[in-house]
Every structure is written in structure tokens, then in C-alpha cells.
Amino acid sequence: MEARRARFEQATAERSERKEALVEFLSAAQRVELLLDRLSMGAHVEEPEKWELLHSLWLAKKVFELVCSSSVAQAAHDYTLVLHALLRGQDAGAASKRELRFEFMEAARRELGTGDEPLRRDPRSPAPGD
Fold first, then answer.
1. What's the rounded Cα separation, in Å, for the pair 111 and 22?
2. DSSP letters for 37-104
3. What is the model's pTM?
4. What percent of the chain has pLDDT over 70?
């Protein structure tokens, strides 16, 4: 009984650690996405602000390599690469930011045990008569 309780407590602590890492990464990614939105609307952004956001994003991404599965770490890496390229004004390649964000979120949901089926990303079409 004691061993079972210890395993449960360990699993709970690991899940909490992963969740904290996920929230930190999502926060860093969201700050980059907001800056990209500002840039798309013609705002001028100083280089130090870009570098600080990229530093936070890459640091948060690296935590996954320590506390999460390789699938989450890879999805975070791919998403980070495209955000980095876009923020630096470079070609982001064939994969879109939206697709890579979706892949990351689904990998994260599976990691936390909430990925029973993929989330719908497009608005629901109204049912006839709505």
C-alpha cells in the first residue's frame, strides 16, 4: 500500500512539473505571437525586445527535453523554429505556425492524459435551422 501511494505521489509530481513547463512555454510562445501580430500591423519593435522574447521561448522549449516525452519536446522544437524564423523575418518553411501550434497542443494534451480526441480548430458550422 505504501509503495502504491509513493508511485501515485511521484506520478502526480511529474505531471505537475510537466504542466508547469507547458504553461511556461505557452506563455513564451503567446508573447512571440502577440509581437508577430504587432509587426503585421506595422508596429516598430526594437531588436532587444525580439531577442528577449526569443530567449524566453528557447529556454522554455529546452525544459521539455528534461521533463517531457520526446514527442512533446520535438513538437515544441518545431513550433519554436517557425516562431523564431517569423520573428526574425525569415522564411518559415512549408509548415505553418498554426499547424505546428496544433501539433504541439495535441502532443501536450496526450502528455497530460487529456488527448482523447483532437480538438476542433475551425468554427462549428451552424446546424440547419440554427
1. 10
2. HHHHTT----HHHHHHHHHHHHHHHHHHHHHS-HHHHHHHHHHHHHHHHHHTT----SS-HHHHHHHH
3. 0.82
4. 90
